[in-house]
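Q: For a teaching session next week I want to show students how multiple molecules come together into a single three-dimensional assembly. I've collected the sequence lines for a complex. Could you give me the predicted structure tokens for the whole thing so I can convert them for display?
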Amino acid sequence: MGLFDKKKTDDCVDLGEALAQTNSGRREVELVIGDDGELEAMTPAEAERSGKEKVGTTIGTKPYYAN
Amino acid sequence: MTNERYQIELGVLQNSTIKPKQYRFMDMNTSHPYLAVAIQTNSLRCYVVKIDLSDNYPYNIPKVFITSPKPLLTRSGGSMLSPSHSMHTLAGENGCVRVCHYGHADWAPNRITLYQIIIKVRIWLEMYECHLKTGRTLDEFLKGAAY
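A: Of course. Below is the structure for the complete assembly, covering every listed component.
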């Protein structure tokens, strides 16, 4: 409990809520290409609103190395 | 990085908590390959992390940068581009803060994967946000947390 200066166990509510959100799929982040060509990180909702190109990995469809 | 190692790294990531839409191996057939990862902290803030694979990864420790937001600043608005033991940073490049993760004493090419580096960076980011809230250095939060 000393690591984060926590005084009580219920000080960890925020972390518990974060974990619950993660497990329920309510917390997500993805890579997109920004207006300046640089990679940005945003939530799926933000990415949809922005209309920016999503560049996360599509497993199995992008051969990075030639066999 | 060899194709064999790449497949191992990809396999580890696919079986991890890191979702495919969060990361992408970039420029893999060039002399400057890197892994870009989107990381969200407990506060819901989003960051982009670049793990530089160009220097003979995994045999050398890869440089790790926070490329977005750029540049990261201290609570007082100061630069974090200089090496700092207390903030766990190394010399930044191109305006990006460089995170200190594994040291030479801890680095093991056959035991440590990119996933473990990502986890360390996630911890660094959480500590960074604690620094923003309190003004205390990252070192103070990490004291006693042997890893």
